[in-house]
């Protein structure tokens, strides 16, 4: 923590004595994510901090930071109340630029899929019928269910990618860590999908906004997991099963795809 402290001073709330020192998990362009504890030493939490930006006017910067933190917390709280799988918000101080939320164990879905696909020789993709894709198909279904629940709540994420989804191991059964052989491999994709990073989320009931959310996820699959792209229809299938109004969103998705294709043809 000491070296990081000198480079990136933590928010004041993290400078008070604690039984376990906070650790800096990620440092992005806009914000930082620390792992710390909330109230009890064995209750881990994530603290998202948006430090002041020296290149912005201080009054404008303070106003923007406050608005972003409170908007992210508000959307997360709405989702959590309505049963969408997101981290619970524990505390926040928008004026100081931070929000504390439930720590989600596990690894990003992106890493889990890449790990799982990475173990398979590429030539097997030519003969997909012979490959048992069940664990991947199941995961795709859980992704579609999570996104369907999100949209049902009236929230669009704004940056749906497999990096913004965590795969949280279930209490019983656990994850592949420490397991060996086929059993361990099958378990690598087990767990609950939890959506994170609501920094760009908005409340919206529009088919267009929802379709753009799905399109962003579809593109993310194409570029990050080209070998899993052919299974994206499974995501859309379970999205439809979860969300009553999905049919008109999927029609809109066709338009959004068409616009995307035109844009890429025009360069
Ligand atoms: N609640 C959480 N529990 C565990 N890890 C988390 C949690 N929230 C975020 N992370 C980890 O921290 C990383 C960064 O978080 P997040 O994406 O919310 O921040 P960011 O990209 O800096 O935010 P923004 O896009 O709003 O600027 C995530 O990719 C994830 O690995």
TrEMBL record:
Compartments it resides in: Chromosome, Telomere; Cytoplasm; Nucleus
Protein EC: 2.7.11.1
GO cellular component, one term: chromosome, telomeric region
InterPro entries, alphabetized: Bud32 (IPR022495), Kinase-like_dom_sf (IPR011009), Prot_kinase_dom (IPR000719), Tyr_kinase_AS (IPR008266)
Domain of life: Eukaryota
Reactions mediated catalytically: L-threonyl-[protein] + ATP = O-phospho-L-threonyl-[protein] + ADP + H(+); L-seryl-[protein] + ATP = O-phospho-L-seryl-[protein] + ADP + H(+)
Protein family according to the UniProt entry: Belongs to the protein kinase superfamily. BUD32 family.
Function summary: Component of the EKC/KEOPS complex that is required for the formation of a threonylcarbamoyl group on adenosine at position 37 (t(6)A37) in tRNAs that read codons beginning with adenine. The complex is probably involved in the transfer of the threonylcarbamoyl moiety of threonylcarbamoyl-AMP (TC-AMP) to the N6 group of A37. BUD32 has ATPase activity in the context of the EKC/KEOPS complex and likely plays a supporting role to the catalytic subunit KAE1. The EKC/KEOPS complex also promotes both telomere uncapping and telomere elongation.
UniProt name for this protein: EKC/KEOPS complex subunit BUD32
Organism phylogeny: Eukaryota, Fungi, Dikarya, Ascomycota, Pezizomycotina
């Amino acid at each position: 923590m000491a070296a990081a402290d000198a480079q990136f001073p933590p928010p004041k709330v993290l400078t008070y004595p604690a039984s376990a020192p906070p650790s800096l998990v990620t440092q992005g362009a806009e914000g930082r994510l620390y792992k710390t504890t909330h109230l009890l030493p064995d209750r881990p939490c994530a603290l998202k901090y948006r430090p002041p930006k020296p290149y912005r006017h201080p009054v404008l910067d303070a106003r923007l930071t406050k608005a972003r933190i409170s908007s992210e917390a508000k959307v997360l709280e709405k989702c959590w109340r309505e049963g969408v799988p997101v981290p619970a918000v524990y505390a926040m101080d928008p004026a100081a630029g931070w929000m504390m939320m439930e720590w989600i164990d596990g690894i990003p879905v992106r890493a889990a899929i890449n790990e799982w696909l990475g173990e398979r020789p590429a030539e097997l993709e030519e003969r997909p019928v012979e490959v048992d894709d069940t664990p991947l198909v199941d995961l795709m279904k859980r992704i579609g269910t999570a996104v369907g629940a999100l949209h049902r709540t009236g929230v669009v994420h704004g940056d749906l990618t497999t990096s913004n989804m965590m795969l949280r191991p279930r209490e019983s059964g656990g994850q592949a860590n420490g397991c060996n052989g086929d059993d361990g491999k099958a378990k690598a994709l087990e767990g609950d999908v939890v959506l994170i990073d609501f920094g760009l989320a908005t409340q919206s009931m529009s088919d267009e906004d929802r379709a753009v959310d799905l399109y962003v996820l579809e593109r993310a699959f194409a570029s990050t997991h080209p070998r899993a792209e052919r299974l994206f229809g499974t995501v859309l299938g379970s999205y439809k099963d979860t969300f009553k109004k999905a049919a008109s969103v999927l029609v809109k998705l066709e338009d959004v795809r068409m616009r995307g294709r035109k844009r890429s043809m025009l360069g």
